[in-house]
Design a protein that fits this description.
The protein is mainly α. About 35% of the residues lie in helices and about 5% in strands. It folds into 3 domains: about 130 residues, PGBD-like superfamily/PGBD (Muramoyl-pentapeptide Carboxypeptidase, domain 1, Orthogonal Bundle), CATH 1.10.101; about 60 residues, no CATH class; about 45 residues, no CATH class.
């Protein structure tokens, strides 16, 4: 793999991590339990604290990760029982997590999210030689979680399911799980990491991976964006200075102050047809 290809892959991976990270609502703090991570609500990362961090530190220490600093839990008792760990997610804890992630071929970002906690629960599974304290920490970190209820955003208990925002107009949250990470990387790299990103083509690339209609959100349909994917409904023509002669060509644009499409004569306009402007920009009553 060449240097340019490696850099491109790194940029795509970092972009995906930022995009996917936005799905989480915050980071683990004192009083949280591990279901916050299992249900993809929160991440354990630098700045986190509390019992969940202690479980992570203990299991890492008990299995030899960053042994100099007891899995990042610092105290000498951290490898013996989770109560001996400091529960503060700082540099040494991050180093232990990165060591674990590299060993098991995960993205080495030092953050405990869904993939990392699931791998920990897989490889740290206790056997007959595991101490009672470690079994307790494992059970608390790898508990069964009812994510159908817990993964709803805070304050959504009284809201109807159809009112919960989705990432796009036409994709339900559970359908996103059907998109393979490599497929997403391919679509991002091919259509977004370009001199002129093509958002329409990106949507169609992703839509091919799940059973979705090949119809993007309204303001991204054919003819509603320019070649760079910019929304034509947000483009307002510059006024023609007095005394400047122009070709008398009629065009149309969406005037947000009036809430409808209006005509403009003589200058460049985003739409050449009133019908297309109305179709793309005006909300149906």
């Amino acid at each position: 793999m060449g240097r340019i290809e490696r850099q491109k892959r790194k940029l795509i991976e970092e972009s995906n991590k930022r995009l996917l990270g936005e799905a989480y609502n915050g980071i683990i703090h004192r009083g949280d339990d591990s279901c916050e991570i299992h249900c993809k609500r929160k991440l354990a990362k630098s700045g986190s604290n509390g019992d969940v961090v202690k479980y992570i530190q203990h299991l890492l220490a008990a299995n030899g990760f960053n042994s100099k600093y007891e899995g990042g839990g610092i105290g000498k008792e951290c490898s013996d029982l989770y109560q001996g760990c400091d529960g503060k997610y700082r540099r040494h804890t991050k180093d232990a997590v990165i060591e674990f992630q590299r060993k098991y071929k995960l993205s080495a970002d030092g953050v405990v999210g869904y993939n990392t906690i699931m791998k920990m629960c897989e490889v740290f599974k206790p056997d007959n030689t595991t101490s009672r304290e470690t079994v307790e920490a494992y059970d608390l970190l790898c508990k069964d979680c009812n994510c159908n209820q817990q993964d709803q955003p805070i304050g959504s208990e009284d809201r109807d399911e159809k009112d919960i925002p989705s990432p796009t107009d036409n994709i339900r949250v559970d359908e996103l799980d059907l998109i393979d990470c490599d497929d997403l990387k391919y679509c991002v790299g091919k259509y977004l990491y370009q001199t002129k990103p093509n958002y329409l083509a990106f949507y169609r690339c992703v839509s091919e991976k799940v059973d979705l209609p090949d119809v993007p959100p309204k303001d991204q349909r054919e003819g509603c964006t320019d070649s760079a994917g910019n929304n034509l409904c947000k483009m307002i023509p510059e006024p023609i200075p007095p005394g400047v002669s122009t070709t008398a060509v009629m065009g149309y644009y969406y005037d947000p102050s009036k809430g409808k499409c209006v005509s403009v004569s003589g200058g460049p306009a985003p739409f050449r047809q009133m019908k297309k402007c109305t179709e793309c920009c005006e909300r149906k009553k």
